[in-house]
């Protein structure tokens, strides 16, 4: 874990993700973890979001710390999955990415009872940084 373990989420993303979670009758363990992450997040208005934070619809370069291989994915809502370049907020990797800043690391439970540490390498695109505050 990095020294700075704060995470940030926009009020818009918080409201949308929480609404989706509230519609689910029983949360799977990985979604319970997402819910806990949201509880510890600092909520900001979209126009206050630091430019290096992963938000919904951001394109992010990340890696697992046990490998030098980087991956680039766009973080989306489940209904917006269109290609292998997208990752759902409800997938373990997607849940781990939300709210992290460039350089931060987070240990996160993965399928098969594994825990992997994800590190944010770059936020290539962030809607808030580009003025898309209501996406």
Record the SSE blueprint.
Elements: E1 8-10, H1 11-22, H2 29-40, E2 42-44, E3 59-64, E4 70-76, E5 86-88, H3 92-97, E6 105-110, E7 114-125
Protein model, in words:
This protein is globular. The longest helix is centred in the first third of the chain and has 12 residues. The protein has a five-stranded mixed sheet. The termini are far apart. With 135 residues, it is α/β, with parallel strands linked by helices. The model has no long low-confidence stretch (mean pLDDT 88). Helices cover 22% and strands 30% of the residues. The chain contains three helices and seven strands. It has one domain: Roll (Chitinase A, domain 3). One of its GO terms (biological process) is regulation of DNA-templated transcription elongation. It comes from Vibrio hepatarius. GO terms for molecular function: DNA binding; kinase activity; RNA polymerase binding.
């Amino acid at each position: 874990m990095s020294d700075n373990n704060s995470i940030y989420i926009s009020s818009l993303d918080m409201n949308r993700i929480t609404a989706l979670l509230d519609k689910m009758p029983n949360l799977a363990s990985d979604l319970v973890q997402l819910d806990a992450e949201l509880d510890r997040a600092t909520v900001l208005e979209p126009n206050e979001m630091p430019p290096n934070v992963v938000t919904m619809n951001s394109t992010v370069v990340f890696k697992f710390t046990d490998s030098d291989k980087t991956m680039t994915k766009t973080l989306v809502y489940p209904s917006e999955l269109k290609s292998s370049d997208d990752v759902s907020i409800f997938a373990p990797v997607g849940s781990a990415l939300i709210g992290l800043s460039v350089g931060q690391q987070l240990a996160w439970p993965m399928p098969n009872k594994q825990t992997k540490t994800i590190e944010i390498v770059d936020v290539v695109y962030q809607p808030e940084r580009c003025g898309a505050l209501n996406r």
